[in-house]
Amino acid sequence: MKTKIKLLCTTLLVIFLMGCEDFLTVVPEDQLTLDGYFKTEAQCLQATAPLYGFSWFNFNDKASYAIGDIYSGNMFTTSDELINFHNYTVAQNNIRMFEAWSACYATIAHSNNIINNLPRIAGDYGVDPVVINQCVAEARFMRGTAYYFLVQLFGSVPIIEDGADAAANPIVPRIIEEDIYTFLLKDLEYAEQFSPVERTGSNAGRVTSGAAKAIMAKVYLSLKNFDAAKTKIEQVIGSDQYQLLDNYRDLFLTSESNYNAESIFAWGWVANQGWATQNTHQAFFAITGDITMVGDGWGTVKPSVDLINAFENGDLRKHEILMEDGDYYDELLSATGGFTFDLEEYGSETNSGIKKYVVGSPDDDNVGFMSTGINTDIIRYADVLLMYVESVMGNDDNTSDSKALGYYNDIRRRAGLATKTSVTRDDLLQERRVEFAFESQFLYDLVRLLGEQGAKDYLSNVERGRYSGDELLSQKFTCNAVKFSIPTSEIDQNPLLKEDPVPYY
After folding, report:
1. Residue spans per domain, the chain
2. With contact defined as beta carbons under 8 Å apart, do 355 and 278 qualify?
3. With contact defined as beta carbons under 8 Å apart, do 104 and 487 qualify?
4. Across-strand partners of 323?
5. CB of 354 within 8 A of CB of 322?
6. pTM > 0.85: yes or no
7. pLDDT of 360-372, one tens digit each?
8. Alpha-carbon torsion 154, 187, 227, 406, what sign?
9. What is the pLDDT of residues 136-185, one digit of tens each?
10. Phi and psi dihedrals of 41, rounded to 5?
């Protein structure tokens, strides 16, 4: 573990991304020296850039949707790499869970370098204190977000505030969940205080106070602190910085959709600029290589039968989220007249394919082999509106609150659906499921809205079968866990991870 921490810190410190026209453009590693950092405003901003994508890459590549959408029953797969999430047999040595763990701690390691070193060095060189505080705010936002993922996925985990200390003493205990939440909320509070309300131009996509408030609101909902969540949500709404796009289709159309008016925080990617800087989703999501024209498009995952059946008749989102026989897309293969999904030609165990995050060929967008530049949205304005409903509902099973209904129905109207005069917990869960399908959220939503036992009961009844001709071969599995074991490789190197967690404060 000591070697891993040193390698993480060294690697993340030297592989920076800089802000010219786009702050995610890669800087060649041979142009970088450790002595050259934190001396200017530009260098400080360069230092935080990897936190927006590079450090999260291993999470985004497969782990995020394996956890959020395959495990939750939104995706079907027969892939050897992912099948354990399909049938609830995720072992302690599962590589996808190690990737989630390691990406979070890579983000934490890089964040710690900035938090602990940038203020001192940049201050000595006269960098504007406002810029210093904003850079530290970005790092603390990312560290807090990483710990939020970790505590949701693994429960009690170690808190690492200083990479040098951890390298010198890598045998550290797990921390009780209550203290992890306290720690990460302090990070998000700092980010809220020192981040600007708005980011424009080349800084679009960097952390804002609204992003910090939105993540804090979700944390508070996880802790059942509904009043605190509602306050943060109202502040995001009242900032007038975000809005629902008129057309759901425009959210994930191409990389030009990035940092739109609905996006609050996203992992940012750049296509064709080297490994770990790109979004690989299209390679696995696209039902056929005829769409991508670059040698990928493997259809590794498909929409589950259960998800398809969850859509109401007339839901306009369905066409933009998944493909069914005969569906036509003028934005795919646009140079040759568009793409039509033909089930007989392309086949699918669930009679469908995935559309979201599939942006097409190099003629359609900046696309390469296993490489697109479309962002991975972590939280968008639609999420905030539905979180408001959740905060008002609290521990009740329904609400008829007029403002909550207004926000809920805004989402439904955009989807072309009839409005409702009351919202039940099941309604809210259903709306979140289809609105954020394939955005890696649903497992977390199930646990937050139903509790751990309720989530396990729900998952044990999800249809995970496939079609054989017109016949559905039904298949369901019993779910016994909605949290995962700390990876074996980490426990082997740090035996304290097997012990009971301890307080941090």
Report:
1. 281-374
2. no
3. no
4. 353
5. yes
6. yes
7. 999 999 999 999 9
8. negative
9. 999 999 999 999 999 999 999 999 999 888 888 899 999 999 999 999 99
10. -60, -45
